[in-house]
Amino acid sequence: MAEPAERDPVWGHPSVARLLRVCRRLRQGDRKRPWLLDALLVATVLALFGLPDLLHGMGPVRHGHGGLSPAAVVAAQLGLAVPLLWRRRCPTAVFAVVAAVFVAQWSWNVWLHADIALFLALYSVARLAPLRRLPWAGAATVAALLLVVFRVSVVISPLIALFFLSSAATAATALGLAIRIGTAYLAALRERAARLEVERDQRSRLAAAAERTRVAREMHDIIGHHLAVIIGLADGGRYAAETRPQRGREALQLIGGTGRQALDELRRMLGVLREEQEQDPQLMPQPGVADLNALCARVRAAGPQVSYRTVGDWESLDRGRQLAVYRIAQEALTNTLKHAGADTRAQLTVAVEEAGVRVRVEDSGRPYDGDHPAEERPHNAEGQGIAGIRERAALYDGQVSAGRRPGGGWVVEATLAGPSLTGAAS
Asked: What is the pTM of this model?
């Protein structure tokens, strides 16, 4: 058993954990009431940096406040600190006001601890203002700091003063940019997560719609075919029962067998839907080319004369293509039975060629009976059956053509791309 990972000695320290909790609470409070944190910031600047100026008097670089009254000092401190209340809404304007007070104060040769407000305003520009305004704020900061270096050069080395002041300005800018980038990164992650959630929901909806279409197509193929056969058998059996009772009993037996087969296929399909989570459901295999003889026999029993032949090695076809061939032939023969009647002749051909698989079903149509002409299917009529055939053929880059035969009747031909062509296309 693997040993648990050792606890980080720094991040796991109780003091660090308490500090992180405090930071989280501050962030939560900042999101709920941002004005409160800004007011606290202004109060902190005035209490920690403004009060010492009044009590001890930083004054000019050497002594006093350069003749400024306490009221003027307080006004300068308020001019530096109070604008920070609006640093989120208009950071550039706040920086401009603070920088103006800063320059005016140093022009009088007055040094105040509250000057730290300039770096807080610069931080706000780096974090919140449009980036195109940051270079201007940086240039203004450099000019103001050069004024400070000039004023303090009488008591401290200009290089040392410039080093510390530029370091403070750089740190404020870098901190603002770092937090800005981190916030933008987190926002991008949240947006991406939301977009992925929407895409995942759309994919599940599309998958559900595709599954409903597949189930509807299977139901149509199974129920439509078997009901057409049952209707044909029932019509033929009704007339045969009057003249040939044995033929009528055979029709009833075929009706029962066809109904049971339809029920078995429906149960198998519904079983797949119910047991799709199981690893090895005991289900019958889907029909294929080997079952076309039985299909033709059922259609023959309903009346039409159906001949069937295969060309090529159909056993080399995978199960998916065999199922598509079976369903296409089933739907085409069902249409023949429904539209051409029981007295038609039909030819089913399944040809496995180098380019793919070709399924062709042609019938002679409904014959003339003297008083009533043959019923012709409209050339542009395309119901659910032909649409289902097109969908199945499209799964294998196939094409479907359906229309009248020159000598009468109807022909449906579907071609499915072979495995080699499909692989090349992909």
From this structure: 0.50
Q: Is 45 exposed, middle or buried (0-12, 13-18, 19+ CB in 10 A)?
A: buried
CATH number, domain with residue 349: 3.30.565.10
As averages over each run of 10 residues, the pLDDT of the chain (426 residues) reads: 50 69 69 75 83 64 54 85 89 93 86 88 92 91 89 83 90 92 90 85 74 69 69 66 65 70 67 52 68 86 85 86 88 82 85 89 72 47 70 86 85 82 38
Whether the Cβ atoms of residue 82 and residue 97 lie closer than 8 Å to each other? no
Q: Are 353 and 312 in contact (CB under 8 A)?
A: yes
- On whether residue 246 sits in a domain, the answer given is no
Asked if residue 78 lies in contact with residue 85, where contact means CB atoms within 8 angstroms, the answer is no
CA distances in angstroms from 64 to 6, 53, 107, 111, 267, listed in the order given: 58, 10, 15, 10, 99
The answer to the question of residue 234 being in a domain is no
Rounded Cα distance between 159 and 71, Å, is 34
Which is it for strands 345-352 and 356-363: parallel, antiparallel or unpaired?
antiparallel
Give the domain range for residue 346. 292-365+384-426
End residue of a domain, out of 99, 134, 156: 156
Which residues fall within 8 angstroms of residue 289, CB to CB, at 6 or more apart?
Answer: 310, 314, 315, 317, 322, 325, 326, 350
Burial of 99 (0-12, 13-18, 19+ CB in 10 A): buried
Q: How many domains does the structure of the chain reveal?
A: 2
Per the structure block, which two tokens stand in for 47?
A: 């209490």
- 3-class state of residue 134 by DSSP: helix
Q: Which domain-ending residue is among 156, 184, 213?
A: 156
- Confidence (pLDDT) at 379: 43
Confirm whether 207 is domain-assigned: no
* Domain annotation covers residue 37: yes
Question: How far is the C-alpha of 356 from the C-alpha of 421, rounded, in Å?
Answer: 8
Q: Give the angle 130-164-19 at the CA atoms, nearest 5°.
A: 70
Residue pair 49/57 in contact by the 8 Å Cβ criterion: no
CA gap 68, 54 in Å, rounded: 11
